[in-house]
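Posting for a labmate who doesn't have an account.
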Amino acid sequence: MKPVSSNYSDDADVKVGLSCIEFLNLKKADSPVLLDLRNVNSYLDFFIIATGNSNVHCRALAKDVEKMLHDAGLKQFGKTDYNSEWIIIDFGSIIVHIFTEDMRNYYQLEKLWGDSIKYVLEENTND
């Protein structure tokens, strides 16, 4: 897997976000993405969005990504509700959204923030 986008940046937050979606992919999250919202919103920088295959999987993904971002030196704001079909983890510049499939399809954050720069993981055929 490799990160791809039409507009890659060397920004530190982008690098952390890309590492996070790679990490979520390794943890079997479905369709992890990083949205760069800096050019479309004045108070949000980045969203990470991923889907778990069950509530238990979503909870595990959230706890694992929370630890990963803590280890990367990011400060967490607020308290995480792990007993939800939409788990939100706020790290200030990066906000992580872990959804069940039904909730991700219902809220469609990627469509709502469609003008953002979207980073996804793509199969690398050169491996």
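Reply:
Got it, the structure tokens are right above this. The helical segments are 12-26, 55-71, 101-107, 109-112.
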